[in-house]
User: What shape does this take?
Amino acid sequence: MKQIIAFSAKFGGKLVLNTEFIAEKNGRYFFLNKTLRRFVQEDFYYAGIYLGKAKNGKFFPSFNLLSLIAKSRANKVVIDRKASWLFICGRDIFRKGIVAVQGLRGKNDYTLVMNEHGECLGFGKIVCSLDSAGKDTDIAVRNISDVGDFLRRES
Amino acid sequence: MSSKGFFISRYAQLGWEFKETQLRQAIRTNILNNSGKNLEQRLEATGIQLERIPFLEKGYWVYSSKVSVGATAEYLLGLYSIQEAAAQIPATLFTALRGKIVLDSCAAPGGKTVQLANFMNNNGAIIALDVKRKRLSALSNHLERCHVSNTVVYLLDARHASQLRLKFDRILIDAPCSGNFVTDSNWFKRRTMDDVERNAILQREILTHAASCLSDDGEIVYSTCSMEPEENELNMDWAIRNLGLKIEEINCYGQKGLTNVFGVQLDSSIEKCRRIWPGETQGFFVAKLGKKTVRL
Assistant: This one.
């Protein structure tokens, strides 16, 4: 649970999750509702909202968790259609692809990456201050995780 | 007689003339993550043209596509699932799913589980089972991608569902079956009547355990993508006679279930089932069952 809160804090977001409703299975964390909690027995495989997994001291968030964090006042960059597609394909974000920024914008800040429909595509790390001058083709946000992972998991 | 000739002659005896059928790709919109997001226009902008499926509320055929329908941003964001048209029918047959406790007994890869969650608006609970661990990962990814939050998944054979010690309001049995030639180009080469008989026995075992977990006013929807009556009408007839179940009326695409199979007369209520011969869709069979009322 601490790992989830700490991860959320990287984005300046304040995620409130009742610990009573969090279930853990082999390092994977799930958020349940009151109804579902009645049906979760010891040997479950998956339940409710998957939040992410902890492995070797690192936390790997799920895309559902990123979407939950995105609902709060978290750091976000909104990117255009072309940049969205490239990001989903695992690429970094050029300065020219960013259409809006919310929250922290400095070097090494973590940011959620949103498309123009307000959907969370993943997250990354800002590699040069988004306030500073630079070329359009400079990499602004380094891709850490994107929803293209759903395809990569299956292959 | 070749295996193909054998099966084709069986279909002819059942009243259907064999014709080669091309599988049409279809998608189903995911309302849990897609309210007012103009999916049709968004997909059109990526080069995918859709055509509404007339007998499904949320279903579209992919009319033409310049890109892979399973690799668009909209797909990865869970705005839709790829699901064959006939396979979208079973989950639509339940009444009043919201707030209910639902068993999806053979759930992976999860297309119907997500569809059930849609109808339930993520309320109530779905217990989704599958017997193969490898398939659970595809199921879990599907649930995560489509923002399903009311489901618990277990690695469990549907024949052991009673181990959960729960009673279910609704049970979906999308039973493991022999499949059909539309989705498998080698189907006629690979399938024998032994497979059909073996699957029919497995399906009866699943039905038996499902009936024991069903609440008194509950509903079971049974479906297969097999065209073989042993896995369909004959199993339904057996369930009526042995499990205290009755066939309920359904209103969906397809023809009436067969009540005479190779000269064997079945219960007349079997015609309430729906048999979908390949054509617009792949081959499919659906039925809804409830418990017989006990008169005191």
Notes: Chain A touches chain B through 33 residues (CB under 8 Å). Chain A is about 20% helix and 35% strand. Residues 89 and 148 of chain A are 6 Å apart (CA to CA).
